Amino acid sequence: MITAAEFAETLARFATGVTVVTVADDRDDIGSTVNAFASISAEPPVVMLSVLSSSYLAEVIERRRRFAVNVLGARHKAIAGRFSAEGRPSARLLLAGEPHHRGERTGALVLDTAIAALECSLLQQVEAGDHTVYLAAVDALPRVGPTATDPGPLVRYGSRYRTLA
């Protein structure tokens, strides 16, 4: 079980970072770079994710009700770009050559070198303009970085990926 302290300590450092959200779909693995991600509650652990309502990612999150969040570090600029490109292929192909595994709770792809990773299950969704805001319980923390060798987080500012390292 995840403690409130573990959750708060992990997200306090990375809530403004760039994340890649992945979902294991029946047909394939999908994923997208997401900038609107934040911690909502430490006890119980709850996060917020905002996704374009008309996107395939939103459709699959609503159908599967589980997803993984990978918090990216400075070394992941290329991954962030791949997952934000139009017409991108399968998430498995986008992570080819990158160490990753399937999350035990979600079956979604978890990047082994992410600064932090969370497995989440959908609690509630709210329509907000052209986006859907998802509130999700944090069921597992398969990667609770950072380690001493991890770079700083990857952030998006001024329409560009930047680092704080």
TrEMBL record:
GO terms classed as biological process: pyrimidine nucleobase catabolic process
Keyword Oxidoreductase: yes
Superkingdom of this protein's organism: Bacteria
A GO term for molecular function: FMN binding
Keyword hit for Transmembrane: no
InterPro entries, alphabetized: Flavin_Rdtase-like_dom, NADH-dep_flavin_reductase, Split_barrel_FMN-bd
Signal peptide: none
Keywords recorded for this protein, A-Z: Oxidoreductase
Pfam family, one: Flavin_Reduct
Domain Flavin reductase like: 11-163
Protein name (record): Flavin reductase (DIM6/NTAB) family NADH-FMN oxidoreductase RutF
Originating organism: Actinorugispora endophytica
